[in-house]
């Protein structure tokens, strides 16, 4: 007797993405069922961590703060792009850019091996590059954006904090994944901070911070629907944001900002209602951290630095990365860290929160 489709969906939706992939290999009928549009949608239960270090590794989400084995992805395009960086993850898709030439880019579903190579923007430009990727639900489209800052004066560098926007040419180019060409979306009216490579996506808008030392940092959004830059209000009591290495993140779907305090702590502010200044609330205070190998659950008193916020765990602890070498969970109540280590984990990495799915760019999420 055939089971009703809703019951089948309920059963299959409880399986992790790796089990669904194995399920789809049994026969053609099961393969078709595993790729049903209902199952293609990214789900919270399929969260995993991707470790990027010129190679890609992943582990199914370690909500139990331990156990598990890190496995490796094998991108089909890695021979043509041996060194790459993961720009970000969105709806089960990774945006991957060439870390050497900064010209090539791919959209890649690591669990299905589907990928799309993006053409090189014309004219090809060298310079300091910022890339973002996201989906806007209103227009139902994925877009990649690329900004290349080129100096007007060869002796001037964007990263040293001693230049102004007038010292650079910068145009934003947009690639809609439903098309085949890049197009210009105008000049970039802000000098963005290259040292902060995060581009969190909230409400169909990518977010960055401006470079420091020019009237203080600003929060800048780029709307993927109308392709306009806008300033996002900051919390009044958060002046120390300018000193945090990883100022922006997403927590529970909300834009979050980290401020680095003089005592080494990091204050985490969350905007509960998007674009409403009064909705900013200080939710967490995270102690400065340096890994202590002899007593990994305790904090060292000296040489502590800001951590990069990855996400919240189900037990209300915060998953953080420190200096690309250590993954840890932080308990806001006890104010203790716990180093997390998994078999097969690389020594140097950047952690990306990813939701595994069968999603592809021509399948609405």
UniProtKB/TrEMBL annotation:
Residue ranges of every copy of the F-box domain listed in the record: 1-43
InterPro entries linked to this entry: F-box-assoc_dom_typ3, F-box-assoc_interact_dom, F-box-like_dom_sf, F-box_dom, SCF_F-box_component
Source taxon at top rank: Eukaryota
Pfam families reported for this sequence: F-box (PF00646), FBA_3 (PF08268)
PANTHER family for this protein: BNACNNG10540D PROTEIN, F-BOX PROTEIN CPR30-LIKE
Listed name of the protein: F-box domain-containing protein
Organism of origin: Escallonia rubra
């Amino acid at each position: 007797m055939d089971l009703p489709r809703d019951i089948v969906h309920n059963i299959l939706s409880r399986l992790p993405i790796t089990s669904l992939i194995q399920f789809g290999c049994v026969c053609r009928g099961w393969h078709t069922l595993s790729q049903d549009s209902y199952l293609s949608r990214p789900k919270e239960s399929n969260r995993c961590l991707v470790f990027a270090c010129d190679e890609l590794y992943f582990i199914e989400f370690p909500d139990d703060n331990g156990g598990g084995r890190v496995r490796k992805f094998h991108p089909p395009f890695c021979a043509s792009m041996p060194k790459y960086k993961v720009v970000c993850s969105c709806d089960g898709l990774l945006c991957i850019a060439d870390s050497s030439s900064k010209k090539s880019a791919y959209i890649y579903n690591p669990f299905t091996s589907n990928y799309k190579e993006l053409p090189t923007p014309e004219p090809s430009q060298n310079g300091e590059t910022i890339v973002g990727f996201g989906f806007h639900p209103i227009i139902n489209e994925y877009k990649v954006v690329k900004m290349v800052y080129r100096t007007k004066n060869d002796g001037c560098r964007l990263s040293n904090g001693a230049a102004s926007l007038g010292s650079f040419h910068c145009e934003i180019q947009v690639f809609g994944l439903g098309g085949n060409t890049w197009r210009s979306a105008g000049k970039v009216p802000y000098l963005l901070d290259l040292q902060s490579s995060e581009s969190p996506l909230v409400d169909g808008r990518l977010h960055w911070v401006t470079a420091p030392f020019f009237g203080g940092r600003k929060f800048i959004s780029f709307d993927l629907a109308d392709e306009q830059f806008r300033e996002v209000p900051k919390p009044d009591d958060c002046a120390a944001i300018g000193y945090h290495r990883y100022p922006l993140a997403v927590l529970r779907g909300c834009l979050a900002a980290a401020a680095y305090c003089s005592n080494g702590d990091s204050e985490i502010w969350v905007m509960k209602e998007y674009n409403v200044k009064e909705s900013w609330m200080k939710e967490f205070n995270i102690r400065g951290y340096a890994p202590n190998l002899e007593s990994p659950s305790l904090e060292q008193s000296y040489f502590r630095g800001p951590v990069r916020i990855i996400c919240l765990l189900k037990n209300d602890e915060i998953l953080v990365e420190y200096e690309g070498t250590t993954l840890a969970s932080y308990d806001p109540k006890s104010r203790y860290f716990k180093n997390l280590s998994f078999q097969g984990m690389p020594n140097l990495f950047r952690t990306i929160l990813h939701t595994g799915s069968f999603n592809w760019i021509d399948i609405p999420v």
